[in-house]
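Anyone have tokens for WD repeat-containing protein 74? Sequence:
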Amino acid sequence: MKWTTSNVKNPNYTENHEFYVGTQTGSLKKFSPTYKDDPFVQHDLHKLGDRDSNITTLTFAKDNESEILIGRAKATIEVHSLDTQSVVKSFEINGGAPVVGLAQYDGRYIVGMADGRIQRLLREGECAAVPEVNIIKAGDNMDRLRQCSLDRRLVACGGKGRQNNLKVFDLAVGKILFSSKNLPNDYLQLEVPVWDSDVGFIDSPQNLATCSRLGYVRLYDVRKQRRPVQCFATDKQMSFTSLAAKDNYIYVGTTMGAMKAFDIRSLKNFVHTYKGFTGGICDLQLDSTGKYLLSGCLDRYVRLHHVDSCVLMYQCYTKSKITRVLIRDTQEIVCDDVTTEGCATDQTHKSEVKLKKKTNAPVDEEYEQMFESMQTICDNEDVDKGEVNESDNQNVRTQDEKIITPKNSKRKLLQHKTLHNKKKK
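Reply: yep, here.
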């Protein structure tokens, strides 16, 4: 699709999705592309905050996706309920480091901090005055923390530096299960630099993938070895910022506005390239089916691509720089009344409004008068082909013969001129 700055919705996009977008200004926005009247309307769920209130992480708290965990740069966490559209819990964390990852296990909130700490916070129902407990030290720098959707007790984290390589922790015992090993030294016997900007589980607790600002994508299997089993690296200056994985594919975004898809069966080269970006990609999210890929970009656009055809399905301007995005299947009914009768009356009301708009449209009297004064060429009514018999065909032919053709009109004009000249003589 050609690059455009306008809001776009592909007519083939009919899925019922909801988008939640976190911005650098601290606001949380909701998009509902299912609304046919205005699919680009934005609902601000949170108001603008100060400079340190920008959203650094977004994730669903429960399997039913009824709550969103929001982490901010000023070391605060909020639990937003999608049923009541309000914040049900909010608390601060000691240390002041930005939040880079959130999870929930055994009734406790798991927080990953940018300074390398993993903290298990309050249990549901406990008093807010209870201090943080069970601090796990994962290093001195952390860029991202993610939880395994198949095994909730496992979390993976990665950051910048050799001591902040990919690690997998067991939250049940608070111990490390896996720590990656770097590649062998290069031909100058220098250590290969490490910077895992994003990590993710690939449909299994044993398979993980990482992407780096240094331009590599690595695939790990914790059952085989500590070093990556496959690796993609290129001489081109590609800096990967975000990652999403599903089935046999890994989707990554770069700081230069490029989004690639890799096949884990062969990481030698990418298999898909998605276009339409004009800024660095901040976050990627796949829907539950794995067919649609949602992306947030620094050019302030949220985009949805079809993963197989690479077609841009949806694009909308958000007015703020995007930091994190979420996608889920909509659980709302478009009309205000939940009953079927209410929906029917709502649809009839909308159609009546459209008819009123059409009837109240201004009429150009001069234009209508010009058409009324024009000569009618043929008064034949359209006849349905399926109901025409032989007699009808003959009638139609006789009527068609009466139609004035350009040749007949010229002949009559010449006859009229000759008669006029004879009268003068």
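Helices lie at 340-359, 365-373, 390-400, 406-424.
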